Amino acid sequence: MKKKISFIGAGNIGGTMASIASGYNYADIVLYDINGDFAKGKALDISQMNVVNGHDTSIIGTGDISEINDSDVIIITAGFPRKPQMTRDDLLTANAKIIGLVATNVAKYAPQAFCIIVTNPLDLMVFEFQKRSGLPKHKVVGMAGTLDGARFKCFLAEEFNVSVKDIEATVLGGHGDSMVPVLSSVAVKGMRLGQMLKMNLTTQKRIDEIVNRVRHGGGEIVSLMQRGSAFYAPAACALEIAQSFLLNQNRVLTVSAFLDGEYGDIDGMAFGVPAVIGDNGVKRIIELNLDGHETQMLRQSVEHLESLIFKLS
User: Fold this and answer.
1) CA–CA separation, 20 vs 27, rounded Å?
2) Residue-wise pLDDT tens digits, 30-87
3) Could you tell me if 82 and 91 are in contact, meaning their C-beta atoms sit under 8 angstroms apart?
4) Distance (Å, whole) CA 177 – CA 85
5) Sheet hosting strand 266-278, strand order edge to edge
6) How is residue 55 annotated by DSSP?
């Protein structure tokens, strides 16, 4: 029996995910949007593309939220996107209302689903969605560090002129300007960053510039596009998480997940950490050995998120 993936929000990210996932031969697709005809149009376009590509995946576009019933995975992109000069935090109140409504419907129609949040401000929306839906915490995550880490690896690969496949890099913390690119984890095929600095393969100034670019990676794209935000990379990252769940791959992926005493006894907070994702959702949190500076930065990121959660209460 085929799996079922539902995408809530048929904008750029939702439509891109539906297009990519239509190539999966193990999952049928529901593309929901409050504008049902918009979702139906995208689904029809993708269905016709599938004819050319030889894919028999069923894809339904709909404005009826009940069509998500019995979904194995639900990926939520619904909400207002960032505009130039806006931070992710600026979207807090407006998108919390949307996520609350989505959470109620998911709890009603697909309470067994593994849910991946893409809506910004991401970590806060993970927290709000889980609270409103009542779904188990291990079944609700956010597409956070998976994307931030991809950006980090992209910039590092360019700096060292090596394949992205040979870069190791992790980004922890909130999916925003307080995120923590973990320099102690950076390596090229086992060669640590400190060694590369000693060999003059890069400079600390260049690494600092890359870290700053990672932290503002989404804003850079918003500024360049003017009328939109990133969608190709976020779509790919969300589907990477979904695939690890659907195929029980047990991938270690950095997601916004709820902690239970890890990273300095942090409890009940959702933010970016490496986690094993398999057929039960988050199977366990991977706790990295951070240096003192990284630990301090992570604490600052947590405090920033806590202040925003207070605004939601």
Assistant:
1) 11
2) 999 999 999 999 999 999 999 999 999 999 999 999 999 999 999 999 988 767 766 6
3) yes
4) 13
5) 59-62, 27-32, 3-8, 73-76, 114-117, 140-142, 251-261, 266-278, 281-285
6) -
Catalytic residue among 55, 138, 175, 304: 175
Digit-coded pLDDT (tens) for 103-142:
999 999 999 999 999 999 999 999 999 999 999 999 999 9
Residue-wise over 3-29: b if at least 16 C-beta within 10 A, else e?
Answer: bbbbbbbbbbbbbbbbbebbebeebbb
Is 216 catalytic? The answer is: no
User: Tens digits of per-residue pLDDT, 232-241?
Assistant: 999 999 999 9
The 10 Å Cβ neighbour count of residue 300 is 14
Q: Report d(CA 129, CA 185) in Å as an integer.
A: 31
Tokens 């993708």 belong to 46
pTM above 0.70, yes or no: yes
The neighbouring-strand residues paired with 262 are 266
Determine the residue type at 92. L
157-186 average pLDDT score: 95
